[in-house]
Amino acid sequence: MQRIVVLNPKGGSGKTTIAINIASYFAQQGDRPVLIDHDPQGSATRWVKKRQTLQPPIHLISAYERDARTTRAFQLRIPEGTGHVIIDTPAAVDAHNMPALIAGADKILVPVLPSDIDIHACSRTIANLLLVAKVRRSDNRLGIVANRVKRHTRIYQSLTRFLGTLDIPIVATFRDSQCYIRSAELGVGIHEMKPHLVQEDLEHWQSLLEWLALPAGRPAQGAPGAGAALTVGVAR
Question: DSSP code of 191?
Fold first, then answer.
């Protein structure tokens, strides 16, 4: 079983969008994934509840809810046969709470938006994961997603320069696309939408899916320092 944690204490970075689309992808593969929603806003929970009976099943655990009638361990139990657990974390996570959130994580994804505020927040997040949560770069379980990118903008250039200094693989670059908004409204992932509508977005997901499939200790192709450049589709 693989545990994937999507984490960034800065709100609005796209954690939920990435988490639900990962869950959707593995559901499409017949994996019957588990999606754990730790965010009190409950966006991932609402998305799952929009899904129709005939859609591939995703087991939901609304971890932000507390039920006095059951133990916490029972509430968070993972069904037998689960292949992937995707964890959507809340905003404003304190550095000292990070070790508990990423405990047992095989992959940790940190989405970052192209803005000065988000770049600064990402820098703190990476530092806390390395220094407080004791995540080692050599484990290859920490990756960055450049999210909602518009190419040919000055802030995009600043983002790529910043990400190139971290020595952490940039495992995907997602464009600023309305497809994600539409899919969230419908309770589907982009892998469940008509391919001709999301072809460009699906191409950008391929590098992330390949990185998730890599075992620990294997470097990601195209990581900064490996000689590969960031590429992104032009936003439309």
Answer: G
